[in-house]
Fold each of these.
Amino acid sequence: MATCNICGGQQFGTGPGGRRSCTDQPPKCLSCNSLERHRSLWQTYTALAEKIFFHEMSAIHFSRDSSIDRKWFHSYERSLYGINNSINIMDIDRADMSYDIVVCNHVLEHLSDDIIALRELMRITSGKGFLQFSVPGSCSLNKTRDWGFPDKTKHGHYRQYGMDFEKKLYEALPYNVYWLIAVQADPVTRAKCLFFFVTRSKKIITIIRLQLKTVSTIFNDCLKWGVGSWAGAT
């Protein structure tokens, strides 16, 4: 029987809008409301925790999701835009390299300028940790569609990302960083989700490569690995 790796729940239903996963399984845990991307990312961090000492690190988490457990870290801060500890991600009121781990999932698509946001996120990431982010989007979309406003019929998104997202990363991120794409399968639906890691540390990027089974810096690998949606549908 499928079991949620976050809460241990074993009952699942359809996701937002009544959707099923790309593997045609009900994706929503009825106990903790987690979806494919939450459980996949939880599994990703669990693997990394075997080699990266999160308990000695500071973290900041931009979003409301169940992918991260604050108890993993020495210190933890969460920003919920417009609600609790609301931080403008395009102008983060924090010093350079303030946090070791910076987490930002399903947020960039809600911003008018995601390039500035990525630069800000990397600016506050320390040299001994990493920035981890994800965005929703189909790997079959060749070019990003940006309609220039938060469309309420599309969850308030400004855009749907395409395979050209790689060009955006090169534009946004400094030259002295390492980055890669990690793929993790949801233990419930087996749908594969995609996450981005960026770090200034050669040691950290090496650990990520060794601990996560499927990593690459080439977007075309996503199709080869059977990724149905970057970090899972909303």
Amino acid sequence: MASRIESMTKAVDAPILVSESVVAHLPGALRLGPPTEALLKGRGESILLYPCEGFNEPDTIFLVQSSFDRVSARSRDFGERFYALLFEANPELRSLFEGELTAQTKMLVSMLSSLVKGLNRMQEIMGGLRELGKRHHGYKVVRADYDKVARALLRTLEEFLGDDLTPDIRHAWITVYGTIAEIMIDAAEN
């Protein structure tokens, strides 16, 4: 059925078409154009198809995951640039890291990748985030340091995504980072 609906997109000049059943499963979530009645190949009765123009509200997790996919192929460079920007703006943080940063950079991009992939399962990753917060407390990381990391992360994303870092994607990253940071900070402070 999905492939038959997809084959109708050219006929009704819409990049994405959704059926009434999809609309019913996502009430109010989609921006829809006026419906078109269509008879699908192999079907005896016509159905209503709606051109979908997108979501009414951006999907924060999807925006973070899809934008990170665009930088993940260059994850090592991303991690190196992140630390360069972090220490350039906050040289006092360099003392929190002993020696050379190769292993730390690998750990950062691995953790970031895991976190981004796990955003759809926040309940499952919260325990790990709490433990990470406690470890960071032991490293003498304080609440203000999380804001410094957020700024460096956003600057790194700006460099790697360029014009693709839309206001919605930027806001999504700020929201997700804020949630993760609060979980870690809460664990460290309690």
Amino acid sequence: MSAIGNGKMEFDPAAMQAADVYKIVAGCIVPRPIGFISTVSLGGINNAAPFSFFNAISHIPPMVCVSISKNYKENRRKDTLVNILDTREFVANIVDEAIVEAQDFCSEKYPPEFDEIKGAGLTAAPSHAVAAPRIEESPVNFECRLFDAIALPQSPYTLVIGRVVRMHVRRDLMLPNGRIDAAKLCAVGRMTGNTYTRTNSIFSLSHDTFDTLPLNETG
């Protein structure tokens, strides 16, 4: 660590403890969307867990990614990753204020035979294109098939990329022009530690990404 002329502190992550690197990365790259990932095991046990290293990476075709670390306490793959690799399917559920407490419950460590969806008081709804269940109470569900799973070099994380094959959006969120009503979505973003942020305080600038989209391409 060193101080440089503009008053910022400089850090070399290679010379730091991993926990200290995490505090800076997770504390500065905010807010992060939460991927509430639901899966099913080969034995038919439902699983759900939230991940904040999650985002959309393409819309042609629609793809999302989630980075999943190992279970540090047991030094093994997390059940979510095991299920995704076994079945090659998962559902990414969006977290809103109504289910934020439930997703926090699911972030705890449970044995593989424990059904987090049921334990959190949520409803496992059947998906239409994959075997993994949707979380009914979530306002938006993206059914995904595994596109690739990449063990990141020198890292405990595996980057999972899924192709979205079905999208379920609560009817009242859809505006007449096809956009999503962000204020009604009430999505929750992850900050760091045990802190979160609401996303219903919105402002606009001149650039509108919708104006740059081609009209004749499909997903």
